[in-house]
Amino acid sequence: MRPLLEVQGIEKRFGTVTAVDGVSLDVAENEFFALLGASGSGKTTLLRMLAGFEDPSGGRVLLDGADITKVPPNHRPVNLMFQSYALFPHMTVRANISYGLEMERLPKAEIARRVDEMLGVIQLEGLAHRKPDQLSGGQKQRVALARALVKRPRLLLLDEPLGALDKKLRSAMQLELKRLQHEVGITFIVVTHDQEEALVMADRIAILKDGKLLQCGTPREVYERPIDRYAADFIGVMNFFEGYPQDGALQVKGATFTSTDPMPQGAAAGAVAAVRPERIRLGRGENTLAGTVRAMAYHGLDLQLHVDTAAGPVTLRLTADVAEAQPLHPGDPVTLGWSARDTRLFPA
Ligand SMILES: Nc1ncnc2c1ncn2[C@@H]1O[C@H](COP(=O)(O)OP(=O)(O)O)[C@@H](O)[C@H]1O
Ligand SMILES: [Mg+2]
Questions:
Q1: CATH at 255
Q2: 16 in ligand 1 pocket by Cβ < 6 Å?
Q3: What are residue 335's DSSP bridge partners?
Q4: Nearest CA to ligand 1 atom 6
Q5: Whose CA is nearest to atom 27 of ligand 1?
Q6: Nearest CA to ligand 1 atom 17
Q7: pLDDT tens for residues 223-246?
Q8: Rounded Cα gap, residues 169 and 178, in angstroms
Q9: 187 and 47, same structural domain?
């Protein structure tokens, strides 16, 4: 099946700055797609080109197979929700949501029906007559979403939509956004710099670095199979051990690690073994490292253990039951183990 959106080698230069550098990606109909990258990696510029607010310096954008690269924003079936909600302060919730449909001069009865439907979707039926300053941050967020969704775009673009919310509300809204997207059946592209948010919400994640597409895949793929050291470090927590290849294994300070990954090209000049904290156990494994407990951090569900080893500091996560069965204290000697299967190898 043809993807809804095809981005082909899109590029944007501002003078000497290349903000987006030859990005190609496809987004399927009904997909929840996340653009993830550090500040300045080109996320907003890419989104603005998809919305038509920025002219690409090169490349093409296809929607349903039709080239829309030169189509002005108001003629694209695409809606961009800005980082600031930009609600009309003097209008009620209902008037804010219906405004776009009134501009389209739709029949009054249809407008009323569609606005009622959206008020139901965002679960704010009771607050339709309030003004924005009588709403909480999360409620304003939902009204802004409703205003974008009521026009039934083929594609909704959201730039850091949850950026203004506090941590707890943010987690709740992540699930809410996913539910909403499912319910309305509209394709979402969401920009975020928060890797955890991307993992929780998205069907697929594209990682941008310096305007280039570094990796694109499902949350599981980018988390379990990061393409390089940068991607491994950017998403989640990762332990790295630098060393040199010897007889197909990686020789690091004080240990030798095996991996199911092939030894990377150019590894003779140095390579890096990487393992996630939750893959490390107490006790020996195919890869084993001895160390001393430096510190412990309690996280409720699990315990984060920081261990000093000859190969460098290591972080691991113990579930509450394991931590309780074997109480540890700073200074205690420990043996850490993990499997070759959970060991990634990258060029240094
Ligand atoms: N209008 C502009 N003029 C000049 N440089 C810009 C403009 N917009 C963005 N940039 C530059 O392009 C790069 C990418 O910016 P942006 O797309 O906003 O990144 P992100 O949203 O990932 O933080 C940055 O180096 C930024 O300074
Ligand atoms: Mg931005």
A1: 2.40.50.100
A2: no
A3: 290
A4: 14
A5: 40
A6: 42
A7: 999 999 999 999 999 999 999 999
A8: 14
A9: yes
